[in-house]
Amino acid sequence: RETARDIEKGPTLPNTTVKLTHPDRIYWPGDGVTKQGLANYYAEVWRFMEPFVVNRPLALLRCPEGIDGPRFFQKHAWRGINTNIVAITDPKDKAGEKYLKINDFDGLIALAQSAVLEIHPWGTTTEHWERPDMITMDLDPGDGVGWSDIVAAATELKDRLETAGLAAFVKTSGGKGLHVVAPLKPKATWRQVKAFTKALADTMSKDTPTRYLSTATKAKRDGRIFIDYLRNGRGNTAVCAYSTRARPGAPVSMPLDWSDLGEDIGPAHFTLNNVATHLQKRSTDPWGEFFAAARPLA
Ligand code: ATP
Ligand code: MN
Ligand code: MN
């Protein structure tokens, strides 16, 4: 039974058996964030983050010397990998190199121990590898695009996704933009899902070419938003909800309520240091019904 003191302390944090070596190692020098600080942050967000990170093939951005040191994106196992990071076989490439997933909180702490500063899952789980369970539309603003324009683009995407019979959720990227994410019942194939997202991006850029484009050509992006649908192909990834970013300020990709998208926040407003307070102040989890809201792609 919860006592008044327990409630004051907030929910019980998950336990781990994973040992952090060198817990004082600095990962974000400008912000004084250590390996222990990263593990503490993940303990705070675990109960919200879990369904978005477990049982999914992962691409991992590792920065053994912190964000100012060398960095590498890894999709496959490395020598001496922690046993809580699990090797999995791609069913379409049984002879190929194995992918990686985690099963539980120990796995997440093993990632922190391994200097993984960004976690990028596929939009599917290993139970239905060929049928994505979410769409991520990544809004990439070119130079000169303002926050209100990014919010307008996200809102237009929400309307269009809802018109297509899907639910739409929004998160900051922790970088420059927003991600609009739609839960799917895992029925359509990667090819069908990617075709749908391409058509969505193409339609938006055709309807308002002065504001949007749907091709990745950086040169033409000035003043416009690239509707990056390319996160939705087989093997592509997008940063995980609640993942930290290996950028100054220790920003995180933060799930929001649509009504949170005001002038007082921006794409990198939420950081490892302020998310726990924000979660405590919030009365409901805006992404709490994410998987319950899943619909099949028509
Ligand atoms: P921003 O708001 O700054 O755009 P973002 O996370 O959306 O943040 P993008 O550059 O738009 O960043 O997206 C790139 C995506 O491509 C990442 O989310 C990641 O999943 C993937 N990615 C990035 N680097 C690599 C890489 N080296 N190998 C494979 N995938 C990568
Ligand atoms: Mn982006
Ligand atoms: Mn992008």
Automatic annotation (TrEMBL):
Domain of life from the UniProt record: Bacteria
The name this protein goes by in its record: DNA ligase (ATP)
The gene coding this protein: ligD
Span covered, complete protein: 539 to 836 of 836
